[in-house]
Design goal:
The structure holds two protein chains of two kinds. By secondary structure, chain A is an all-alpha fold. Chain A has one domain: Helix Hairpins. Chain A is built from three helices and no strands. In chain A, helix 1 runs antiparallel to helix 2. The longest helix of chain A has 31 residues. Chain A is elongated and about 55 Å long. By secondary structure, chain B is an all-alpha fold. Chain B folds into two domains: 81 residues, Four Helix Bundle (Hemerythrin (Met), subunit A) (Up-down Bundle), CATH 1.20.120; 39 residues. Chain B contains six helices and no strands. In chain B, helix 1 runs antiparallel to helix 2 and helix 2 packs antiparallel against helix 3. The longest helix of chain B has 25 residues. The interface between A and B is large, with 72 and 84 residues.
């Protein structure tokens, strides 16, 4: 059984995950819409998951994939709670703009 | 063949990610993110990680993105147009940060020999059988704790979004 790493070097998986992570980071910094900021955070989590799966399958060690499973559960919990908070914020200030919460800075 | 599929899937993933970040309509962002997740699931399949690929589709595309789509529709956000920061300095700095970080990390990873030996890369590693055995032996305690986390989240969300009488 031939492996994917015979034709694609591990570095390319690292590069892909790195690009996805940086796009997600730029999204968090760039956008004002809270929902899009959340989605950018999801993108960053996924980049890390991809890295973990790539290394796990390179090493032949299933531990990394179990860890990815846990990361997914935590991401699901985070999204549910975050969107709950977002709905509450929207009910109170009628906006999902990040700047609507600038009073948290003081 | 594997190479071609991998590079097509990576291109789709990166285009989806970019369009998530730059599209003005929140609805398009959600749909692009779903596209990215499906491309990533394809890459997981190429890495022989069937279990992770299936769970990724069920949890991310099935649950999380439906939640996002639901909130976007419920709050009627697809009519909001101005969603990118107004201050041009912050805008360009954000893009610059992303590019510089990508350049630095890319340069670093290209110039580093990864000091890990290649292990047994058979197709067995990512199967449900292997991962299930691992999950219920070595990782039993974290598995139970994560269910407590999910219950706590569920209770928290219900309490948080309940309307006060």
């Amino acid at each position: 059984m031939e492996s994917i790493f015979d034709v694609i070097p591990l570095e390319h998986f690292v590069l892909l995950s790195l690009l996805l992570f940086c796009i997600g980071m730029a999204g968090v910094l760039l956008r004002r819409n809270m929902i899009v900021v959340f989605m950018s955070i999801e993108l960053m989590l996924n980049a890390v998951n991809l890295l973990a799966v790539a290394f796990s399958s390179y090493r032949g060690d299933p531990g990394g994939q179990v860890f990815v499973f846990f990361v997914m559960v935590v991401a699901a919990a985070e999204v549910a709670l975050g969107l709950g908070i977002l709905v509450m914020i929207y009910r109170n200030v009628k906006s999902v703009d990040i700047n609507a919460l600038h009073q948290l800075k003081w | 063949m594997d190479q071609v599929i991998f590079y097509i899937l990576s291109t789709i993933a990166i285009i989806g990610a970019l369009s998530t970040v730059v599209s003005r309509n929140a609805m398009y962002s959600v749909l692009s993110l779903v596209l990215t997740f499906f491309a990533l699931a394809g890459i997981y399949l190429q890495l022989n990680a069937e279990f992770v690929a299936i769970v990724h589709i069920i949890v991310y595309a099935g649950a999380i993105m439906v939640l996002f789509l639901f909130v976007v529709m419920m709050l009627n956000l697809n009519t909001v147009t101005v969603t990118i920061r107004k201050n041009p300095l912050i805008k360009y700095l954000a893009v610059l940060m992303g590019i510089v970080m990508a350049a630095v990390l890319g340069f670093a990873s290209m110039n580093t020999a990864l000091p890990i030996a290649r292990g047994n890369t058979s197709a067995e590693v990512g199967t449900v059988k292997v991962l299930g055995k691992m999950l219920f032996n070595e990782y039993l305690l974290p598995f139970e704790l994560i269910s407590v986390l999910l219950i706590a989240t569920m209770v928290g969300v219900i309490v948080l979004t309940k309307k006060e009488e």
